[in-house]
Amino acid sequence: TKTSGIHSVPLVILRVTTGALMLHHGTEGGLLPANFDSEQFKGFTTFIVDPYFSFLPGPSFVWSAVHDYVEFFGAIFFALGLFTRPAALSLLTTMAGAVYFHTSSTGWQGAPFGHVANYSYDFEEPML
User: Fold this and answer.
1) Interatomic CA distance for residues 68 and 34, integer angstroms
2) What is the pLDDT of residues 6-22, one digit of tens each?
3) Measuring CA to CA, how many Å separate 5 from each of 12, 17, 44, 120?
4) Is 47 left (phi over 0), alpha (psi -120 to 50) or beta?
C-alpha cells in the first residue's frame, strides 16, 4: 500500500483526529494535565489508580500524573506528527491500562456476543 503523496491524506486526518480526542481526554481535570488539586485528579487517583494499579511502584499520584501527561503531550506530539512512534506507544500503553481497568472492574460483560443494558461495553472505547 502507498502511504506517500495523496495517499497519506487519510492517515493525517486519522492521526490529527486521534490526537485531538486524546488531548480532550487528557485535560479532564482542567486546561492542563495533572491538576493535583482538582476533584477529577483526586478521584482518578483514589478510585482507579489506588485499587486497580496498586502493583505499580511509587506513589499513586505520580502514576495519575504520568497518565495525564501521556494523554496530553503524547496526543499533541501524535497530532503534529512529532515523535509519532514513541507518542503512539505511550498512548497505546495508557489505553491498554484503561482496558485492564474496565475489564477488571466490570468483567467482559458477555463479550463478544453478550447484550449489556446500556448497549455499550465499558472496555470498547479504550480498546479502539
Assistant:
1) 6
2) 888 888 999 999 998 88
3) 11, 19, 42, 38
4) alpha
CB 52, CB 98: distance < 8 Å: no
Give the residue among 123, 121, 104 at the shortest CA–CA distance from 51.
104
The DSSP result for 100-117, as a single string, is: HHHHHHH--TTTTT---T
d(CA 66, CA 41): 12
Q: Are 32 and 65 in contact (CB under 8 A)?
A: no
pTM for the model stands at: 0.81
Q: Where are the alpha helices (DSSP H) in 2-128?
A: 9-26, 39-44, 50-52, 60-69, 75-80, 84-106, 124-127
In angstroms, the CA 68 to CA 52 distance is 17
